[in-house]
């Protein structure tokens, strides 16, 4: 059974999703999701995992960006070949089986999308808890309000959601550029960039394990690069604009992460960095801003973090809601999920159901556990999507491909190996969570066959 997203005559009378996203808007959706509050603290984790070697840490950022770029090139070929709303769901359904695509979609609908939305919504007020003391109840109230507000923003049209995304992205990038410029050009310290472990010499295997562990941390920062393909059906000229937006956004994000961390190494002495990390103070970007601008620097970083999280939240709400829509179009969810608002041309029912699930997750106590469950399964489906490139080239050799992966098949091979390292590392580190992360997709397979049987009986 080959996945096909072809509407029937009745569906053709229904309003369609509006094609309003261009290269700039598409790039901003991904940049907004990828560059969140993590830019201020994940660099510290990468440095710690690199044995406090600045050279290895910066190398890890470049390697992580390269791995992400290789994956995005594969997604560019798949998205340009089939620019349908649904992203990974579409590619896995076509390359392997509709049930594989639905397993991914199901975990994204139940935990992946709403869990990420809930987590970022809670993280935003928590980031200001030290400046403005607030109770846990107030934190959750603010988080719920944020989810409702930005769901409404995206309900009033994809172009409205795109405009909001563009505004907050530009607003958050400018302070980041300021910190980068101050650190690089006015910093007084020369970072030691030799790729040597601070603890002395080690074996080649030790270095490989160390850098692999550090790269995994950078991939957390790059997470979200798959989400533009989810709204490919709403892009203008997706065959051209989707690959361009993917390459531009991943390339820009890699440069920002690399320069931001280099600026930290230029602005702060190594002894201060070491002391801060030893005492659990991971927000080195804040220290840089304080060193140059005093209290104003602290306020500037706080504002930038808020803007970063808002743009990330808005991008997630826009992208994740399309999973429900794509499944309903294939009659693997109730038809209401495929409903398009006639006035605003957005999947209104999917947006509001996603909002309700996200709010329910905000109200739970174990959000961290919930969101961590999808890490392992997310890597599995990303790897399968990359493998869909050679599978589709074999199954559909004559299919028009407006864009083809550079350096094929090495691009696919390297990307798959990288994700295998992530899977193995996660499984060894936390086997129970990894196994549980596959339970939801397995339940999705049961739901898939249930819906197929339901519609067969009705027909």
Automatic annotation (TrEMBL):
Q: Among the entry's GO cellular component annotations, what is one? A: membrane
A GO MF term: L-amino acid transmembrane transporter activity
Q: Which InterPro entries match?
A: AA/rel_permease1, AminoAcid_Transporter
* Record keyword Transmembrane helix present: yes
User: Which Pfam family, any one of them, does this sequence belong to?
Assistant: AA_permease_2
Q: Which residues cross the membrane?
A: 21-42, 54-76, 110-128, 137-158, 170-189, 201-222, 242-264, 299-325, 346-364, 370-393, 405-428, 434-451
Highest taxon above the source species = Bacteria
Q: How does it sit in the membrane?
A: Multi-pass membrane protein
Q: Which UniProt keywords apply?
A: Membrane, Transmembrane, Transmembrane helix
For the keyword Membrane, the answer is: yes
Protein name (record) = Amino acid permease
Which species does this protein come from?
Ligilactobacillus salitolerans
